[in-house]
Protein: F420-dependent oxidoreductase family protein
Amino acid sequence: MTNSAAGKPNLGRFGSFGRGVTPEQAKEIEALGYGAVWVGGSPPAELEWVEPILEQTTTLQVATGIVNIWTASADAVAESFHRIDSAYPGRFLLGIGVGHREAHAEYRRPYEALTRYLDRLDRHGVPANRRVVAALGPRVLTLSAQRGAGAHPYLTTPEHTAQARQLIGPAAFLAPEHKVVLTTDTDRARQVGRKALDIYFNLANYRNNWKRLGFSDDDITRPGSDRLVDALVAYGTPDAVAARLRQHLDAGADHVAVQVLTGVTSWSRRWPHSPGRLAWHPTLNEEPYDRRGFPQTRPWPVRRVARHPLHRRRPRRAD
Structure:
């Protein structure tokens, strides 16, 4: 849904971030009070898994976190967007991003490639207020507000959220992701957190952002200092974790995408499911990447969906 007064998406205060979410899991996420489910892992351009989730829920929104511009054609993504939005108006938010130099041989001049991708989405009529951009640094954060609804920063801190809000202004949408481990055992929380963070130490985009936030080379060297892990992964009592996530809201976030790390293969229901405080949905979030950041699997569910008859593919234009 879009907030008509502010012109920005309204996903509620908290969403659930995961990979391979099924329609049944989405129903439970909605019942727990989440406003949105964010699906990561660079899903393919066809986005055929979105409709089953929206079909099985009533108000839950689906957001991509994110579609990768190097692997997903803007033409196909735009077609998918219009098909989904026609069937479920206002319930799909398109998140796009440039990914990482270490994972894509095509990675050249990413800022210019991103602007061209946005140009093509414009030509296909994808509304700016229904798309967000994965952004960490000042240049892309600014672009996210100029060419989209706003930004979806990943693996950041409330301090970064405050800086981002100051940069993009009050009218832009800001939805950071934050990881959570549901335990009061500090050693266990850091162990699970380090496992989830491990692949990111090789990725320059994240390392550079952590340095901008004041972390040292020692902090950001694998396996990461306690200071870094504690900044990126919330843990403790429900009240302590909720307070940590609310720091993003206090810093200017409109919405926080909560990625709960379990470190096990079963779902946990140990924590209060009170949307008024924070709705917990500890889905399994094992990272489907190798140590270089390359996807190992296609974890999202896929279903064949017929092309919407009213949507016509536009002819490809040369950039």
Summary: The chain has one domain: 2-261. The first strand starts at residue 2 and ends at 3. Residues 2-6, 264-319 have pLDDT under 50 and may be disordered.
